[in-house]
Amino acid sequence: AALDAGATCSVTVSYSPVGVETATSSLVFNYSDGLNPASVSVSLAAQGAFRPGTKDLTFGTLGSFEYLYPNAIGSYPSGLSVRPDGSILIGGTAEGGIPIFPNPAIITLQLTTNGDLDQNYGIGGVTSESNLGAGVSTNDFQVNDLGEMYFAGFTPRRQILSVKMLSSGTVNTDYGVGGYNIYPSSGKADLATKIYIDPSDGSSVRVGQFNLNDIIQKLTPNGVLDPIFGTNGTLTYDVGGSIDNIRFVGKQSTGKYIAGGFSRIIGSLFHNSISLFRYNPDGTFDSTSNFGSGT
Length: 295
Prior knowledge:
The chain is 0% helix and 45% strand. It is mainly beta and 295 residues long. Residues 18-24 and 44-49 have low confidence and may be disordered.
């Protein structure tokens, strides 16, 4: 607006990438009165550096964290939890297969808020537990308000498994037997898929697949099956499929549990259907409130 009559003006936007997502920007105003061209540059260096949905390049290495347990052929996460101080816990399994690392391990990693391994946790930010031998696998990882960690999965013999660890990442030997609760196998690829930790009393509900049917188990805070739930702590149910598998479980404010997963009919094609049901705190099916027979 301050240019003389007849002057021309153009705007050039320059974009100079830094790293992957960040960029410095500038606006260059070029103007001329026909005789004396000039320009004014305005720096917008912070523009675009923290746009919603882009990587935070201050986290880990250019916004990412990657980890492979030493000498393992694979490391697989089962869950993640953020501690109140902002540090990050990851739980999972390191898979064996190399001669110098024949057995897999249940592992935990703690990262700082900036995505680096916390050198004050475990050994270099990592803990491992390999007492169960080759074939152990975890499918779920949960952390309670005390920072204690729970895993659900299966043993090398395909037995349903849950493990409890202290906030330091070491096995809590007061839980179950030596830190583990292992349920005898049916011989048909049993496994736990999810574990729910009740914040009101520290008990837990473990779900999964047993004898190709749904299984729900309640454990006391000490990691033993609760005898007043279902039959000696266990409830199994055949939805009617060739394979039934519970994948999730939660607790309503009424104290009743909601669980669900899939039922698979094996024929010329695979047919999976969602199954959802509710059961009472004692492990009996809830047949009220439009839940029909409980399924």
